[in-house]
Amino acid sequence: MLKIFSRQPVALLALIVIALVVVAGCAPAAQPTAAPPTSAPAATNAPAATNAPAPTTAPAGGATATQPPPTPNGGIIFHSSQFAPVNEAEAMRNVILKDAPMLVDFQPQAAGPFVDIPLAQQKAGKVNIAVLGGQHGDFPAFANAGLLDDVTPLLNKLADRKFPEQYIALGKLGTDKQYYIPWAQATYIMVANKDALQYLPQGADINKLTYEQLTEWAKNAQQGTGQRVLGLPIGPQGLIHRFWQGYLYPAYTGTEVVNFKSADAVKMWTDFKELWKYVNPGSTNYNNMSEPLQSGEVLIAWDHVARLRDALQANPDQYVAFPVPAGPKGRAYMPVLTGLAIPVGGPNRAEAEQLITYLTDPKTQTLVAQNLGFFPVVSGADTSNLPPGVRLEADAIATMQASPDALPALLPLGLGAKGGDWNKVYNDTFQRIVIKGEDIQTVLNEQAALMQGILNETKAKCWPPDPASDGPCQVK
Fold first, then answer.
1. Diameter of the chain by CA atoms?
2. Nearest 5 degrees, angle CA 64-CA 260-CA 287?
3. CATH class of the 188-334+413-458 domain in this structure
4. Which residue, among 289, 306, 300, has the nearest Cα to 324 in the 3D structure?
5. Torsion angle (degrees, nearest 10) of CA 153, 157, 159, 163
6. Between β-strands 319-322 and 104-108, what pairing exists: parallel, antiparallel or unpaired?
């Protein structure tokens, strides 16, 4: 059994997906949305390489990105939905890929362009991308389009990596072919400045908080500091949509989709409106929580581990990292698995396989953990000497996984190029209910109709923790 954390008997995120693989079936469910041919990048020469500056047109969190620049002569394009923020992209180019055995043009993209560009290239009959790097839920649209090559022979060559069997199963997407090789894993947690601990509710255990206690904590902190010191990444490049999808909704309703407009959902938004009274108003501009934590604007925050890392690394003795709160249905959280795939007809097949071999090498996996806060999926990676800030995150994840009320919620599956529209449904629901003060049930009914339209169009089946569905997932 693969472990990256020293605490026992805590298992990896890999072990959490055992049941999820069975329940979700992991089969591609959605037909991809056709992308306009103009989305394809040109196959001409450009000076980008592994040490090139990060593109400013590829923000994370569903924002629109322009097409990437073409690759240099002799290089290969690594097209990724991961590590798009400038600091992360620079770390990929200047640290992770610095010793790659070939020139690599790392091109991170937002959700829509990540799907649209390869499909447009396929339609145009000229695929220029050598390697695709994305989250598990990114790949079904490519598989449905016949864009993913079978990498079973490569997986066999990498047998010494000892990938978790559960992750190998996910990479098959419900078939007998291996469509992607596991790459890295992560999740979202909470962090607090130790100065905020004095305001914890009496008797509260920071590792067993409820959302009710979080609200009381934030209220106490406001009264004690005179400021609203709870922060959330609601900026244009923030990942707040994952908070609604994988944390609040399943914690209150037990689902991400089916109970979107239920009485439990009304209760959830009612409670969140109360919490919002104590959220720093600057949150609507925060794209990651490291900066406001370090500036002192925020003392308590939720975000992706990669986006909390800078604050924890800068001053690990000043912070505590801990599990997300629990709601009435459990302590919901979202495990994130990423993978590496090779598109059919892509160039430089031998170099593409070499790049995947390099990225899954234990030494490279260790670099990713140290510099980007994503954790290894292979045996042999050295996590015994993690930087102190990353160790704080690893311990918080371990505690969260071991919680008896832990409720893992998968990333959306089968939505393809509609992933950005899907995220917008949740974010617009927040805007209408919390910011504009509209009637909760009315908003939920109207937003549920938009949600159902996306599900019907993509034919996406339900994914855990929602109950399995034969056809498109249905909002009750």
1. 64
2. 35
3. alpha beta
4. 300
5. -70
6. unpaired
Q: What six digits make up the tokens of 415?
A: 């939505």
Question: What average pLDDT does the segment 292-321 reach?
Answer: 96
User: Which top CATH class is 13-187+336-386?
Assistant: alpha beta
Binning pLDDT at 50, 70 and 90, where does residue 161 land?
Answer: very high
- CA distance linking residue 103 with residue 77, whole number of Å: 9
Structural contact between residues 177 and 152, judged by C-beta atoms closer than 8 angstroms: yes
- Whole-number Å distance between alpha carbons of 50 and 99: 9
pLDDT per residue as tens digits for the range 350-369: 999 999 999 999 999 999 99
Bond preceding residue 9 cis, omega within 30 of 0: yes
Place of tokens 């610095």: 98
Distance CA 171, CA 136 (A): 8
Query: Collapsing DSSP states into helix, strand and coil, what is residue 177?
Result: coil
d(C-alpha 107, C-alpha 124), whole Å:
20
Q: Please enumerate in sequence order all residues whose Cβ is within 8 A of that of 456, keeping only pairs 6 or more positions apart, or say none.
A: 472
- Where do the CATH 3.40.190.10 domains begin and end in the chain? 13-187+336-386, 188-334+413-458
DSSP SS3 for 340: strand
* Number of helices followed by number of strands (H, E) in the chain: 17, 11
> Using CA atoms, how far apart are residues 80 and 264, in angstroms rounded to an integer?
36
**How confident is residue 287, by pLDDT bands cut at 50, 70 and 90?**
very high
- Calculated CA dihedral for residues 369, 375, 381, 382, nearest 10 degrees: 50
Confidence of residue 197 (pLDDT cuts 50, 70, 90): very high
- In 3D space, the residue among 231, 156, 183, 218 whose CA is nearest the CA of residue 365 turns out to be 183
CA dihedral sign of residues 374, 368, 129, 59: positive
CA angle (412, 232, 433) in 5-degree steps: 75
Taken in order 348, 349, 352, 358, the sign of the CA dihedral is negative
- What's the mean per-residue pLDDT of the chain? 86
331, β-bridge pairs? 406
In this predicted model, what pLDDT tens digit does every residue of 387-424 receive, in sequence order? 999 999 999 998 998 899 999 998 998 898 899 999 99
- How many CB atoms within 10 Å of residue 210? 17
